[in-house]
Amino acid sequence: MDRPVVSIVGRPNVGKSTLFNRIVGRRVAITENNPGVTRDRIYEEAEWLNKYFTVIDTGGLEPFSEDKILSQIRRQAEIAIEMSDVILFVVDGLSGVTATDRDISNILRKSKKEVILVCNKIDTPKTPDDIYEFYELGIGEIIPVSAAQGLGIGDLLDEVVKYFPQNKNTEENENIIKVAVIGKPNAGKSSLINNILGEERVIVTDIPGTTRDAIDTYFTYGDNEFILIDTAGLRRKRSISEEVERYSVVRTLSAIERADICILVIDGEDGITEQDAKIAGYAYEKGKACVIAVNKWDIVEKEDRTYLEYERDIKNTLPFMMFSPIIFISAKTGKRVNKLFEIIKSVYSSYTKRVTTGVLNDIVNEAVILNQPPTDKGRRLKVFYATQIGIKPPKFLIFINDKKLMHFSYARYLENQIRNNFGFEGTPLQVEFRERE
Ligand code: GDP
Ligand code: GDP
Question: Which residues form the EngA-type G domain (predicted)?
């Protein structure tokens, strides 16, 4: 994980989280006088001019409490110094220099890190003269931006990437697999995470997460690199009620959103339940690949065909996850956890697979010949051309003559032909139809 790290520091309300969102390319909700609302996670990958790096919004490390602001800011600045290659020191161009700004600059100036002074809230294209007062902070060049309007961000990032050290990796890394462990309370998520992160694996870093102390854990397993998302709540959990509260729906949703692959942990003692279906639904809606792990298999009373019954029940309850692999594990004994990782790797390769347009069209044409498209009032659906437009999950665009002629069942048929012919196992596919004359 040798990405350059850029962290954002500054006193509350200067616009750190707005800037963070801008840099990571998230749509910024303009929230007038609504401090901190846009902050949902503070650690993310970003890219500029094909250089990939990590951004940390130190303001999200913990919520500021009025009485401890100074010590908190100091600590955040120290974390930034320790963790990052480039520090963006954000000040508020509307309010001018404050004592806290001076405090922060004193700490930063003593570090040997590259610090860029970002003067935010300069919402007009022409830079007003009053930003020059910030030179007093002794940081050097001032870059005016408006995080809210998106002004000056490109110039800022041009500057940032200049400071990346040679020994850091800025190449796109599609190989790190981000995994979220989801499931209802007591299914065994914490136990699974603890098993995965047991001594034999190399845990390289704990990456601080959101305000509510999410921690993403980076580790290697065999030749692969993984990030387990939001392990904090689960690893340090003390009681079920604590989990119910902390690992709330919001937290689950946020973990799912950031993941490539979700491990849906099902309590083997209970079998599949409505609550599982609801959680699985979130992953499905977000287009994430899912591996279903039936846990506590060590204590499930079973006969020869028990697992077949489980599989049948799961497929009935989660029809939208027909294609997801199901594995029977024990987080407690570690049984088949290795196998789980083999499956995750193979699902990930489906999730990121690209196919060539030529072969794709051969498959689609053949599918159309094998199974004639539907007609309506004498008009027949025509399928012209297909192309893959994305991955994670694989997305396809198919040009047809008339959307009204495309029945759900025929769309499903085409999707299945693509899935089966290319071996897109375990991943959802998105197929979009577009009309063309
Ligand atoms: P943080 O506490 O430093 O993370 O600050 P926030 O990103 O939460 O922003 C604090 C407030 O400043 C919010 O009300 C934002 O809408 C506002 N703000 C952020 N960036 C800008 C900007 O470029 N221009 C203006 N006018 N307001 C901004
Ligand atoms: P979480 O709430 O989903 O994080 O679930 P936990 O990991 O805290 O597990 C809930 C309970 O199930 C604990 O008492 C665990 O010891 C137990 N448990 C978890 N996994 C297994 C397993 O594979 N086998 C058995 N027998 N018990 C398990």
Answer: 4-168, 177-352
The predicted complex's ipTM stands at: 0.57
Question: Is the N-terminal amide bond of 373 cis, ω within 30° of 0?
Answer: no
- Condensed to tens digits (0 to 9), the pLDDT of residues 121-154 reads 999 988 888 899 999 999 988 999 999 988 999 9
Residue-level pLDDT at 212: 40
In this structure, CATH architecture of domain 174-350: 3-Layer(aba) Sandwich (3.40)
DSSP-derived secondary structure letter, 137:
G
Q: Supply the pTM of this predicted model.
A: 0.63
Q: Which of these CATH numbers, 3.40.50.300, 3.40.710.10, 3.90.1150.10, 3.40.50.2000, describes 3-161?
A: 3.40.50.300
Q: For residue 390, what are the CA distances in angstroms to 211, 286, 359? A: 32, 15, 16
Q: Which of 16, 18, 31, 124 to mutate to test the pocket of ligand 1 (most atoms within 8 A of CB)?
A: 18
Index of the ligand 1 atom closest to the CA of residue 11: 3
